[in-house]
Amino acid sequence: MKPTPFTDIQYLKGVGEKRAALYRKLGVETIGDLLYHFPRGYVDLRAPYTIREAPIFEVCPIKATLTRKSPEQRIRKGLSIFKLLAEDETGEIEITLFNCRYTVDALKADTAYIFYGKPGGSFLRREMSAPDIYPAASDARILPVYPQTAGLSSRMIGRGVAQAFESLGGLPDVIPPGVRESENLPEMDAALREIHFPQDLTQAKAARERFVFEELLSLCCALEITHTGHKKAKVRPMAKTDLAPFYASLPFEPTRAQVRCIDEAIADMTGETPMNRLIQGDVGSGKTLIAVALAYMAAKNGRQAAVMAPTSILAEQHCETISKMLEPFGLRVDLLTGGTTSVKRKKIYADLADGKIDVMVGTHALLSDGVAFARLGLVVTDEQHRFGVAQRVKLSEKREHTHTLVMSATPIPRTLALIIYGDLSLSRLDEKPPGRTPVETLLIDGGKRARAIGFLRKALEKGEQAYIVCPLVEQGEADLGLRPATEYAKALAEKELKGYRVGLLHGRMKAKEKEETMRKFKSGEIQALVSTTVVEVGVDVPAATIIMIENAERFGLSQLHQLRGRVGRGKDKSWCILVSDSKDPNTRSRLGAMKDHADGFEIADVDLQIRGPGDFFGYRQHGLPTLRVADLADDISVMQRAQARARALLAADPDLSREEHRPLAGRVGDLLQKVGERPN
Ligand code: ADP
Ligand code: MG
Question: 254, 468, 499, 560: which could form a disulfide with 258 (CB 3.0–4.6 Å)?
Answer without folding.
Answer: 254
